[in-house]
Amino acid sequence: MPWAVRLQLRALEAGVDATQRRDGTVNRFLFSLVVDRQAPANPARPDALGTEPSPRPVIVYFHGGGFTYFSAATRPYDALCGTICRETGAVVVSVSYRLAPEHRFPAAYDDGEAALRHLATIGLPAEIPFRADLARCFLAGDSAGANIAHHVAQRWTAAATPPPIRLAGLLLLAAYFGGEDRTESELALEGVAPIVNLRRSDFWWKAFLPEGADRNHPAAHVTGEAGPELELPEAFPPAMVVVGGLDPLQDYGRQYAAMLRRKGKEVRVVEFPDAVHAFYFFPVLPDTGKLVAEIKAFVGSIGPEPIA
């Protein structure tokens, strides 16, 4: 891993640790000063993508950050979503949601649903020069955002949601799920892997979950080993699950994929053996380009489908 990337990861860790208070709150002002650089609004039209009449798929993206940090305007997320937009040709809608601990479960899931309802009823802003195919709507996210994407997909497909939105697929990058029992990868990579360790992860779950809940709460533990089997609606979409071999969360990603298979759902697991958590923040890493290519292939493999 390049030294510049190592230094940026260490700086991110230091910023997170410095802003986590002992009472479970977050010093957001300090975090905004030392870590969370925001991308400025860009009024330029993306004319380079062309204005051909065929409608484009839509990717609704939920950022990560342990439910407690970042926004859609955070520079690495703005850059990642821009890259996905250019490479896939999709319209990417990046969602900012309410953060914990000020807004605990289920606020982030409610906001995700609200974003879909807004798309269904209002649509895209008039200045967007493309037509969007809402029957090819993908939910995507990384880390806590992948958790949100899963739960929003479960809610949306369980409800009698009207057209025009049809969920065509899920894109889950380094998904943040949990449980009271520590996984082998959590224990093996403790103190070795960057960003995610047991102390930080426990802080984030405590900030997000209801008061008094443990990590076997259904928001965190979705694979059924510590509770009732998860019910997935028939319309729950195919999924692509991205796993990093140096990410402590990797076992949860594989358990999630295995659960989907048990439920008869389509799932594709994409493994990057040398990837750490949040590797996609860094365009210089070869795995980031490979990931975007995998996303492009997955989105392109799911064509439009008429809605009855």
UniProtKB/TrEMBL annotation:
Listed GO MF terms: hydrolase activity
Alphabetically list the UniProt keywords: Hydrolase
Domain Alpha/beta hydrolase fold-3, which positions? 59-280
Q: Which family does it belong to?
A: Belongs to the 'GDXG' lipolytic enzyme family.
**This protein is called what?**
Alpha/beta hydrolase fold-3 domain-containing protein
**Native source organism of the sequence:** Lolium multiflorum
